[in-house]
Write a structure and sequence with these properties.
heterodimer, A: mainly beta, 7-stranded mixed beta sheet, B: mainly beta, 11 strands, 61% strand, globular
């Protein structure tokens, strides 16, 4: 089944404890992206990747890192999480940039 | 950067009614998608429609790129249509995506 998977789905952590949210797609898509969703703000793009080893900032990259070492994986790294990073995070992928995006199920992160 | 505005912000309908949701954008785009976020938080693709008109069952969408807007039509609404509808655009010349703040739809039985 074609899909985008994210892990974990739910995470409660404490300020400053490094964490990684994984994202994987099995559709051989070139483009992958991370978004965060906050009440009243809709979805905002954090980072995106056009292909392996090619990444760029979205609108809200501060406090996040990404890497794209393999085509199928695009992990989101929070090196020192803070409470303002409490949010619902979505990973998405598409065949190429300007194309239909498919979203993962979301990861609900709480930073205490 | 490009601005995306959706209207109305909230909509309550009786089952069976029709509705039109609007998405305005401030600059030329190379990509426009409509999504439905269901009450469980899942984001579901509805249409990829940077221009033209598409239909899928009770839903249809039209994008007039030259006038910088897109419309999503829902006919004979059902309670399962409830949720939030987002449009997302990719600004021409970039690979960034910008989402509107959504239209929250509630369909009453």
């Amino acid at each position: 089944e074609a899909q985008v998977t994210q892990n974990p789905r739910y995470l409660i952590t404490v300020t400053g404890k490094k964490l990684t949210v994984t994202c994987s797609q099995n559709m051989n898509h070139e483009y992958m992206s991370w978004y965060r969703q906050d009440p009243g703000l809709g979805l905002r793009q954090i980072y995106y990747s056009m292909n392996v080893e090619v990444t760029d900032k979205g609108d809200v990259p501060e406090g996040y890192k990404v890497s794209r070492k393999e085509k199928r994986n695009f992990p989101l790294i929070l090196e020192s999480p803070s409470p303002n990073q409490t949010s619902l995070y979505f990973c998405a992928s598409s065949f190429k940039g300007p194309d239909t995006q498919y979203f993962g199920p979301g990861t609900r992160l709480t930073v205490l | 950067g490009i601005q995306v505005e959706q209207s109305p912000p909230d909509l309550i309908l009786q089952e069976g009614a029709n509705s039109t949701l609007r998405c305005n954008f401030s600059d030329s785009v190379n990509n426009l998608q409509w999504f439905h976020q269901n009450p469980w938080g899942q984001l579901i693709n509805l249409f990829y429609i940077p221009s033209g008109t598409k239909q899928n069952g009770r839903l249809s969408a039209t994008t007039v790129a030259t006038e910088r807007y897109s419309l999503l039509y829902i006919s004979s609404s059902q309670t399962t249509d409830s949720g939030v509808y987002f449009c997302a655009v990719g600004a021409s010349g970039t690979y960034k995506y910008i989402f509107g703040t959504g239209t929250r739809l509630k369909v009453l039985a």
